[in-house]
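Standup notes
- DV: blocked on the single-chain target, sequence here:
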Amino acid sequence: MIDRIFAAASAGAIAIALATPVMGQSNTPLSVRNSFRVGTSGVACTAQNAPSDPRIGGMFDRAYRLSCRDAAGSVGNVLAVRRTVALLREPNGPGLPSLDCGQVARTEIEGLGPVEMVTCRDEAAKVDYRRYAIERAGTAYLAEGLAGYDPALRLALASIVRDAPQPGEIRVASTEVSDPAAFARVQAGLLEAADAVEEGYTRNNGGRFAESAEFFEAAAARNRDNPRRHAESLLNQGLQLSNLGNFEGARRMFDQATGAVPRGDGVGQRLLRNYRAIDMLNQGRSADALSALSEPVPPVSDEALEEALRAGVINLSLSDQINRENLALQRLGGLDPGLTEQERAEVLDGQSKLLAGIAHRQLGDLDRATGLFEEAAKAIDAVRDGRVVSTGFLRSEIQMELALIAEAQGRLEDARSAFDNAVAAIGNSYPNSPALLAARARKASFLSRSGDVAGARRLYEDVVKAAPGVPDVGPTLRSLLGPYFKLLARAGDADAAAATFSASQVLERPGVAQTQAVLARQLSDGNDEAASLFRLAIRRGREIARQEVEIARLQAIEEPTAEDTERLRGAEAMLAAFRQEQAALTSQLSAFPRYRALAPQSLELTDLQKGLKAGEGYYKLIVVGQDLYGLMVTSAGARVLPLDGQVSDLEKEVQTIRDSVVTVLGGQTINLPFDVEAARKLYVKLFGQVDAEVQSLDHLIFEPDGPMLQLPPNVLVTADKGVTAYKERMKNPRADEFDFTGVDWLGRGRKVSIAVSPRGFLDIRALEPSRAPRNYLGLGSNALPQERPIGVVASECDWPLAVWQRPIAPDELFFAQTRLTSGASEVRTGEQFTDSKLLSDKTLDQYKIVHFATHGLVSAPRRGCPARPALVTSFGDSGSDGLLSFREIFDLNLDANLVILSACDTAGMATVSASREAGVTTGGNYALDGLVRAFVGAGARTVLASHWPVPDDFDATKRLISGLLDAGPDVPLAQALDKAQQGLMDDPDTSHPFYWAAFVIVGDGAKPILATR
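- DV (later): unblocked, structure below
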């Protein structure tokens, strides 16, 4: 990961210099920046250059569009023009509707003093807007936008007038439905194509890889008619995928770009060469990186461009340069004409030497590496005498590499000095960035290796403390924090446990954790006007994301028909309308203080401990790189545990246990004798150091990570006694090898819940139970079709009709109905159980428990097809596909204490692409991010999901669910499940974990199924 961070930073730094040279971000006047953050805390908002604003006249006029996280569209505009601006007569900026304005008044803005102000209203949408104006030194400044974003308007105006960022908190409505990458997607949509490229390089420079990818994706889509820029955007998309660890996706993108870069394009070929080498270094393939760097590239000379210009020929390369220089002149007032093609090539050649030096350093050839770093520095400094500011990242990385060489040679003081130089260089150009935190983390690792443990811990603590305020930092820091976790685990005291808890929250979490946070906010706010606005804003946000996917699909059609073109225009118009409406909704939410209250970015260990009851323990598994750690937390204390082995070992151990539970071969489910010895060894590995605490727990809350996301912890074995007894029985040739009675399972005699994050668990625990008037809705046993209904268009990626011809028996549904009669219960099967009826049903929020007993489809129907999680239903109205899809589940309106998914492997994941198609802009590719997440998003406080196909033999699933619902209304869910599971554990026919252990409780199992008190 060290090389990955360098690679992105250095490549981005070069590319920024090649596109439009910029000064260090910490001291550059705003008037020469492409974008800047508005304010210093609160909700993240930015101002982005908007050269297409029709109100701009002269070359010194400027315009910006304002965007804020969670608002899908622009929230306002800022204008700086050398003419008079009258508040009531100035035309509205882009994105603003027709408004009715009141009287002009005067108000005070901090840092500016008195300014003119007017409040306007969009009567059609019932939304207020605000305008501010002030004149200074012959320039008129105007800020306008949604009144709910008034703090952003004020700070943006003050920043533009003073030509420097102004401190201040932006406390506006936040729905928490987006992450930094989703916000970057909104920002990219507001920029011109050239600015999107530049901003992508800027984010890349700062180590914000996921955000950078969004800008380059937008640039690639808009530059389809400019082959050179399109190829450059594709290359950078590939680079970001590599930086994020998606090497297969990066390879595909590089292959696509290879065909798009002309062989004679010297700059493009150098980018391709260097980026492929960076990808190899990211994968640890140093020798392959050197091979990639040895590929020949065509020469680049500015003389050819000059000859073409004298001849009156403006070729593509020259056109790009003229456009770039004109844009720079407009923005910078003629201060910098931009780098020439030859200068770009020279900087790229300098980078290639730096990359070769890294490869040689990794291979142990330190002398050769040092020489290459010297050559790289000379090549970079030869371009304009070293005055290209944005190549500072290259110099910084050279210092970082020299520090590593000095350390390897035992010159520790030289190494420390070089690390300090590298950190200072990055901090000057990109303060408050992942790249800066990464550089500091790398220095902390050096301090640890050199014996300064106290200094290393202090520096790591500073990095972790700063991380919540730095967007897109998780992917960058994930493996760089590995040495920190080792230090803390080695210390093992209470302070180390608290520090481990804080550091673990920097790492990425499953998307379902974020969905739980949104659900908690939605359900905790009742049903007043604000809550309705919140829910509507959430829905509009999903519709926007879905519309973006559809637009990308239409744009990718190589030879669009007239109908395709018309659909694209309609989709773009609809997207613009959705964005404007969603931004207006979040503006209206700002009138309600509870939506302006910012949720904490991270929790303290004491926050979790206060939320735990007596007899409860929270065990958090933490995967950092290849290393494994456990954190055991109770209300009385906490311990951090170094765990034996690596992630690769855990993967094999989990797969061994899963294979002994159930294996699917040729579509057939096969059971083998359960590997109790492997289950016992894994328990010792994960819980052996805290066995006494675990044995005394009444309720274990387990937060899985890595491979354990795919295995219910209940199947682990807590004592040797039952294993020894089983092995003794197996000495008898006539013994039943499927009889596991007497085994001490972790899931026996205690409640077990699955959490996806500490905050998610506490949020769900704090929620009031459902107020739905009816107890139970059972759904399943689809109608048996003889053929695919007319009107359902079949494709090669549809599931075969046989999927619908094996409906699940509804016995467990009808039994549950007989046990939950008070408060009204209902079962819908056959023709009453269709996808179209469920999607149009407005009464689903009237049930406290919603129970599905049907087939779950979590894999792809066949190779080469996308995986889209879904539940099988009956075929319904015209257009019905007989599936309740991941996307459609999000659109259901539930108010349920519990959703039971009695189907196949419903604890599985949804891919990132399936998540985006569903309108979900965060998460994906994690177990539990599939159907579980969809039902949480629909309104389920807790989901009972399965890790493998639920069995029909011995009525096991019917007995399990029946026992669960027969426990009584005030019995905690996890206690009821434990009792039902014990009944199966004690029956030799169903004692194999296949029959009783599939289901896990995602949520708070200490809550009752149906509370009567």
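- Follow-up: The chain is about 45% helix and 15% strand.
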